[in-house]
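Human: Can I borrow your eye for a moment on a structure tokenisation matter? Separate attempts, laid side by side, tell us more than any discussion would. Could you pick a protein and write out its sequence and tokenised fold? No explanation is needed for now; the record alone will do.

Assistant:
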Amino acid sequence: MTRLRQLVLAAHERAPVEQALRVLLAAPAAHHDPGVGSFGLTNAVLAAGCDFVEVVAPSTTGTAAGRWLTRNGGDGGYMLMVDGPRALTASDRLAALAVREVHRGQHPDIVDVHLHPRDTGGVLLALDAVDPPGSWRWAGPAWTGHGPRCAGGLRAVTVTVLDPAEVVRRWAALLDVPVVDGECRLRLDDGRQDLSFVAGAVDVAAVTAVRLALPGAPRSADLGGVRFEVVPLEEET
């Protein structure tokens, strides 16, 4: 089963976005991964039910995230990370789809492949395959090698692009899922998640809206260049 597992925001200043997200998501303390320093970044990963929202900020000049921030004209939805079958991450499969890898990391519990956004037509996309199911190394020790009990998470993500019809076709092939008939939309996680592509006069693709199902009252906010809507998890049951 393939599912959206993590949204990544890029921000000029990490701390204020991290704090606002923690309040919105009612999340415990964030995990800060020193490993992202190899990309010239600092980060914070916050749990959102069984899924995650990360914010990264450049800690040096000349980073890919920093260049994206300049092209985007400010903070925004920079990257999506998908948790799926190991077959999705196979190098020969990706080469056959004419997509370049910009990063590949392998650990006993996860394979992590980042794809070049010029080849996907959308935002930076990471394909991850985890073992055991439900684990997520990028969220820290509590999620490494096992998955804590959880409920809720990402339900809908909207990506603004120049050519939605072309991008949805490309992502359907990359994620090995069908396009919803007559729409620029993919259904993931056995129908629980929607990934939609909409047109915009943009110089760079960006995630622009997110809906999550979490415990508590409904709430919404514009954070890090993204419109967040939280719906009560109780309404899904």
The longest strand covers residues 153-161. The longest helix spans residues 14-25. Residues 98 and 119 are 7 Å apart (CA to CA).
